[in-house]
Amino acid sequence: MSVSNKQTTSVSTDRKMESIDAAKLRSDFVHVLRSRRSPEIPLSVELGKPVADPLYQETPQPRFREAMQSCPKADIPNLKDLLKEENFYLITESGEQGRLPVLILSMKESNHQKRQAVVFLHSTNKCKEWLRPLLEAYASRGYVAVAIDSRYHGERASTKTTYRDALVSSWKKSDTMPFLFDTVWDLIKLADHLTQREDIDPLRIGITGESLGGMHAWFAAAADTRYAVAAPIIGVQGFQWAIDHDKWQARVESIKAVFEEARTDLGKSEIDKEVVEKVWDRIAPGLASQFDSPFTIPIIAPRPLLILNGENDPRCPFGGLEIPISRACKAYEEAHCLDSFKVIAEPGIGHKMTSSMVKEASDWFDRFL
Predict the structure, then answer these.
(1) Pick from 120, 132, 118, 107: nearest CA to 54
(2) Which DSSP state fits 289?
């Protein structure tokens, strides 16, 4: 099923007020992102090396992903010989997690022309190396393809429980925001770097990701207008809607350890909606309220936005997107760019990135970047 330019609800027609509200929402969101930061330091770069043995925080270790291998690729027989690979760290703040690992693939070219770039974000328990098939495919078509390790993943993890332990610690201490917001901060800092590079057009930077990475892409695009085109995959959802409609279980199951810890601390015999609300408010303040999808999806307008979900995804229930879609349609309509917003819910698909989703995202970037 494809939904585009439908389900419009009435909102204020005062464009000036809408613009102020969008700016205020971004300002409020960045304020929350800053609230649990280690001391900021000047952005700097440290050279790195290819990761020989990437850390995946799941067993068995994933080996092959058909959907990513299906990404459209230019027919270049000696592609790997023509690829330029960069491995480095952006130092964004003090502390271990302030060292952001970055992997970039692009074609070796001598004309030094500025090119469009796309940032790719991995799913839970994966890492940037998992995204290499996508990076190679986009690079073959002339993009600068960028991937990072999310907080407590990949090179930012030391054991298979690093991410889980960080989530529990966030609940206990309210000192970090490892589920979503800390990586969104990293993506703002990444944009600082990408927009200064000689090989990237600062006005043509896209962002996409799968699952956890889809959520990161959504929030980064909402927070930072330098991400000119967005295509989050199986990530956009309504957190408060899921609580209100008793559809929170699948999302909770994906990071259950922190909810179990909270259940115990709150003296509950089982995880219920109160536990869920308190966890979200503690580890990602505003996630199920002022920064939820009904508010952050519309402010991506007028920049091109493609939302790709499975129609039967229990982690991102499609019913929770009715209000965000309606409000976004209104925003794009008033910006006179309805063709820049599209939602596709693939029939019969649960929480899974498919080859058709990868192709749709690829086409979206080819069209708008």
Answers:
(1) 132
(2) T
Three-state SS across 349-366? CCCCCCHHHHHHHHHHHH
Structure token pair of residue 145:
């393809």
Residue 121: both structure tokens together: 């974000």
Nearest Cα to 6, choosing from 309, 272, 298, 326? 326
For 33, 149, 288, 301, 302, the CA distances from 225, given in Å and listed in that order, are 16, 22, 22, 10, 10
Distance between CA atoms of residues 160 and 149, nearest Å: 14
70's CB contacts (< 8 A; 6+ apart) are 355, 358, 359
Instruction: For residue 97, give both structure tokens.
Output: 């997690």
CA atoms within 13 A on the CB side of 19: 6
CA distance 102 to 128: 8
Peptide bond into 302 cis (omega under 30): yes
Strands (E), 235-280: none
Name the CATH superfamily, with its identifier, for domain 2-368: Alpha/Beta hydrolase fold, catalytic domain (3.40.50.1820)
pLDDT in tens, the chain (369 residues): 445 433 322 233 333 334 448 999 999 999 999 999 998 899 999 999 999 999 999 988 888 889 999 999 999 999 999 999 999 999 999 999 999 999 999 999 877 889 999 999 999 999 999 999 999 999 999 999 999 999 999 999 999 999 999 999 999 999 999 999 999 999 999 999 999 999 999 999 999 999 999 999 999 999 999 999 999 999 999 999 999 999 999 999 999 999 999 999 999 999 999 999 999 999 999 999 999 999 999 999 999 999 999 999 999 999 999 999 999 999 999 999 999 999 999 999 999 999 999 999 999 999 999
